[in-house]
């Protein structure tokens, strides 16, 4: 289903909060995240004709554009080598993580833990929890197999759990990754 | 709650993250910046499409033209080559007979020694009358070839006009046959081949096939030049 220019603008701008949030998750600072958001919308406008609302919701579509821009920039700056991680290796390392039932999830501690997560874990966790995208949508946004989405979610939760428990090794590992 | 690797569920974590990040609102400055950029881009798009589309169409047309011309040349060349080979195959027997004739002295119902005759125009008239069709003016003197003999010879049970030219030790022959002997003959069509080492260049005109045949070692280009001269080109 193709949409008109005005309809596209309306739908896209409705997602600005989510896109901005994701941009801030990915970017190093406010300036960079604002640039990411603007570039995302400009690219989305250019690619509007190829967008089909039925096959891909506008939010996942905008996120995918945002993610692609970020990855492209990262590759250009050669500062995102972990984004090139082998999916096969990652899939093979799926570990089941325990729910965070027993941990006190204070916002401050959680925010700090999230900030210590590697970017590829942090963004997927946000897409799953806050944006409530399906695994399939997350896979399409990030450009990875669904199995990798699952493994990253489990790894993210385990890291969060370790960080919230003040697990020194986990903090070191997060800081090094 | 399912902790299996094929599913992921943690309502507490989800709720905490939603509480932490879910209330995020983009500030007005960013909203205005994005809207401004979109409007500006849309305005440019409104102006640019014809140029962009025109350029794209231009490039597409140019590419199509280049491809088309290239493909056309290729196809034309391939077709021409195939046609050329087919033409030779269809008429090889005829050409071989012509070459054989060129190597033998004229012998037939009418052999005219040019020295004892009148003008070349008279010779042409006599031969044309004898074979019953038009023949080219057999004067190649401007090209350095002297007409030595004119004759009417039998060729595949038809009457053929034959003109033998000399240029020192070199020898070429013009033979004029009914065009029906040439397979696939069409008016004003010409051809040039080397058969058994002999260059052959001929053309079809007014029901006649007129062919210049050089001795072995003569160049095909020279025969083509003589043919074109006879043809009045």
Question: Can you walk me through this structure?
Answer:
The complex is a heterodimer of chains A (177) and B (233). The C terminus of chain A is likely disordered. In chain A, 68% of the residues lie in helices and 0% in strands. In chain A, helix 2 crosses helix 3, helix 2 runs parallel beside helix 4 and helix 4 runs parallel beside helix 8. Chain A is built from 10 helices and no strands. Chain A has 177 residues and is mostly helical. Chain A is globular, with a radius of gyration of 17 Å. The relative contact order of chain A is 0.12. Chain B has 233 residues and is of the alpha+beta class. Chain B has a single domain, classed as Phosphorylase Kinase, domain 1. Helix content of chain B is 47%, strand content 23%. Chain B contains 5 helices and 7 strands, in the order H-H-H-E-H-E-E-E-E-E-E-H. Chain B has a 7-stranded antiparallel β-sheet. In chain B, strand 6 and strand 7 form a beta hairpin. Chain B is rod-shaped and about 120 Å long. Chains A and B meet through helix 1, helix 2, helix 3, helix 6 and helix 7 of A and helix 1 and helix 2 of B.
Summarize the structure.
With 177 residues, chain A is mainly α. Helix content of chain A is 68%, strand content 0%. Chain A contains 10 helices and no strands.
What attributes does this structure have?
heterodimer, A: 177 residues, mainly alpha, 10 helices, 68% helix, disordered C terminus, B: 233 residues, alpha+beta, Phosphorylase Kinase, domain 1, 7 strands, 23% strand
